[in-house]
Amino acid sequence: MKKDLNPEQLQAVQWVQGPLLVLAGAGSGKTRVIEYRSIFLVEEMNVPPSRILLLTFTRKAAYEMIQRAARHSPDCQRIQGGTFHSFAYNMLRQYGSHLGLPRFTLLDRSDSEDVLELSIQELGFRKKKERFPKKETVLQIFQLALSRRKSIEDVLKESYPQFLNLEEELEKLRQHFTQYKLEKSYVDYDDLLVYLHLLLEDESLGNKIRSHYSYIMVDEYQDTNYLQGRITYLLGK
């Protein structure tokens, strides 16, 4: 291992004293650190692979990192790896009943847009003389508000000033859209992270989820939004 890593990488791989943030430029070997850290934890620290959680932004990234580590240590194949959303989905399947969601239907982007359009129609916003934004644009506004932890008004000011006069209608629409999904037990990809955050904030449920993992690694942490950052913090709390 030492011959494949520089001193800084080796230090990061062997760090077990608490949270660690690796800051380095593109192509400097951050992914290699995760690969070798996985091997180190399993082979040197005797950590059961199932107690290691690897969160990434794509399924492909998680799969490739685990496969590379498994070439050196086959037990690494059993590391729990996936995207924030896939992890949230699995947790919601296990603990969703505590949030009133014993069963739910997952909506993809297209489904979410169609459900949102139903809310727009029910509220009569398409019948007004004033041009109302397309469903794709509205969904993007809602997603930006969530990921940036900002109000609808702030998102409109920053990114969609042409719709500032519709701030009140958009806020009403978001409430209607959210309520409609709750009534139908619909969950979209943004909801997955919101619900996971709620589960982790609950002391009892959060402790139960945290108890499954001894080490958590996040690839490309600099690209996390506010909610993903909070989830990471609560998982490692």
Q: What report would you give on this structure?
A:
A 3-stranded parallel β-sheet has the order 2-1-5, sandwiched between helices. Strands 3-4 form a two-stranded parallel ribbon. α4 crosses α9 and α6 packs across α7. With 237 residues, it is mostly helical. α3 (59-72) links the parallel β1 and β2. The chain contains 11 helices and 5 strands. Helices cover 57% and strands 8% of the residues. It folds into 2 domains: 7-97 and 206-236, P-loop containing nucleotide triphosphate hydrolases (Rossmann fold), CATH 3.40.50.300; 105-184.
Quick take:
With 237 residues, the chain is mainly alpha-helical. The protein is built from eleven helices and five strands, in the order ααβαβαβααααβααβα.
Count of domain modules: 2
Spatial strand order of the main sheet: 2-1-5
Low-confidence regions: none
Query: Given this structure, which CATH class of the largest domain is correct?
Result: Alpha Beta
* Named CATH architecture of the largest domain: 3-Layer(aba) Sandwich
Range of strand content: 5-15%
Radius of gyration: 21 Å
CATH topology of the largest domain: Rossmann fold
Q: CATH-wise, what's the superfamily of the largest domain?
A: P-loop containing nucleotide triphosphate hydrolases
What would the average pLDDT be, to the nearest integer?
94
- In helices, the fraction of residues equals 55-70%
Q: Count all strands and give the number.
A: 5
SS-based class? mainly alpha
The ordered string of helix (H) and strand (E) elements is: HHEHEHEHHHHEHHEH
Q: How would you sum up the global shape?
A: elongated
Largest sheet geometry: 3 strands, parallel
Number of helices: 11
Distance between the termini: 30 Å
